[in-house]
Design a protein that fits this description.
Blueprint (H helix, E strand, L loop, with lengths): L8 H19 L4 H24 L5 H25 L4 H25 L13 H8 L1 H21 L6 E2 L2 E2 H46 L1
Helix pairs in contact: 1-2, 1-3, 3-4, 3-6, 4-7, 6-7
Length: 216
């Protein structure tokens, strides 16, 4: 009898994240506090499923995919809500959503394919800046937290201005401070998508060459 991957501890945590995310989606348009509580808890659990996977030796491809899809779906649904709150900026929310979904999906899919081949690929970790991004957990956390803070602040700002700080509402101030981080994070995602495209093209070229060699 094989192992039941779906009952692994990190995947159970992942299912909990999905349920919390769905609840937050339902209440996003009308109940700020409840929606934020569920959304933030779901995002917070993202750190725990990784630790659980390592602790229980239960890392799986399904868990990694579930984790990524939950993140992407959560961000996409938040963007959709923000577009209804700030219709004048709908285009920019659409662009941000498209970058987040397509570049992450392409990068993850290509990484999976690379694991099945032995070709030479572009490795962004060789770049000093990207090496810092990949290897320094503090930098990665700052970028991800700053990106989430920007969109979360925009969401809460629709309901509350918050206390005044430096002559401006707290949530507006958070949005302004975290905006550059969100822009840089989006740029890194575009870079991921670009490099993934080049690596995927490398896989195509080598597979086509191998096929032609067999047909000789």
């Amino acid at each position: 009898m094989g192992e039941n991957i779906f009952l692994f501890v990190p995947n159970i945590i992942g299912f909990g994240r999905v349920i919390l995310a769905i609840i937050s989606f339902y209440y996003m348009p009308t109940h700020c506090i409840l929606a934020c509580t569920c959304y933030v808890t779901s995002a917070f659990l993202d750190a725990f499923d990784g630790h659980a996977a390592r602790y229980f030796n239960q890392s799986t491809k399904f868990g990694a995919m579930l984790d990524q899809l939950t993140d992407r779906a959560g961000t996409a649904c938040l963007m959709m809500t923000l577009a209804t709150f700030y219709p004048d900026y709908t285009f920019w929310f659409q662009i941000s959503m498209a970058i987040d979904i397509t570049c992450h999906w392409l990068y993850l899919h290509t990484t999976t394919l690379q694991g099945k081949t032995s070709h030479k690929f572009i490795d962004m970790s060789e770049n000093p800046i990207m090496h810092l991004y990949y290897t320094n957990k503090n930098v990665l956390f700052f970028m991800c937290a700053g990106n989430e803070a920007f969109y979360a602040a925009l969401y809460v700002l629709h309901f509350y201005t918050g206390p005044t700080v430096l002559g401006i509402g707290l949530f507006k101030l958070i949005a302004l401070i975290s905006l550059p981080v969100a822009v840089v994070k989006a740029a890194i995602s575009v870079l991921h998508g670009f490099v993934a495209s080049l690596n995927l093209a490398t896989i195509d070229v080598n597979e086509r060459a191998a096929l032609k060699e067999k047909q000789k």
